[in-house]
TrEMBL record:
Organism this protein belongs to: marine metagenome
Keywords: FAD, Flavoprotein, Oxidoreductase
Domain FAD-binding PCMH-type, chain residue ranges per copy: 1-118
Name assigned to this protein: FAD-binding PCMH-type domain-containing protein
Keyword Oxidoreductase among record annotations: yes
Origin organism lineage: unclassified sequences, metagenomes, ecological metagenomes
Pfam families with a match to the protein in the record: FAD_binding_5
Length: 118
């Protein structure tokens, strides 16, 4: 099935994305990896009026340690957990588990934030 029509937005900053989501309210859905949302749209189980594509927001893509904690950005791809030296050296169980999430094609697009949100 083909998804219904929607308005597409690609904010260039986190502030712009937050404002868009605030202005559009429940009529908007966030598009990141899209592995959950796109199939639901194709089946017409989700029919958002607006899609806010956050793929261009590099500020949300990081793996770092801060104040003794591992911090992972919402737009970090699952595959980034597999290739991160920090994760491999200090959090090997996270690296091991990331390697069995779906298949490599999905891991290259799926985001940590999307998996947690869904």
């Amino acid at each position: 099935m083909i998804p219904g029509s929607f308005n597409y937005h690609a904010p260039s900053s986190l502030d712009e994305a937050i404002k868009l989501l605030d202005d559009l309210g429940d009529d908007a859905k966030i598009l990141a990896g899209g592995h959950s949302l796109i199939p639901m749209m194709k089946l017409r189980l989700a029919e958002p009026t607006h899609l806010v594509d956050i793929n261009g927001l590099s500020d949300l893509n990081y793996i770092k340690e801060q104040n003794g904690y591992l911090c992972i950005g919402a737009m970090t791809r699952e595959s980034d957990l597999e290739t991160s030296d920090l994760v491999a050296e200090k959090y090997p169980i996270l690296k091991d588990t990331s390697e069995v999430i779906a298949d490599p094609l999905v891991r290259n697009l799926a985001t940590v934030g999307g998996n947690l949100a869904h």
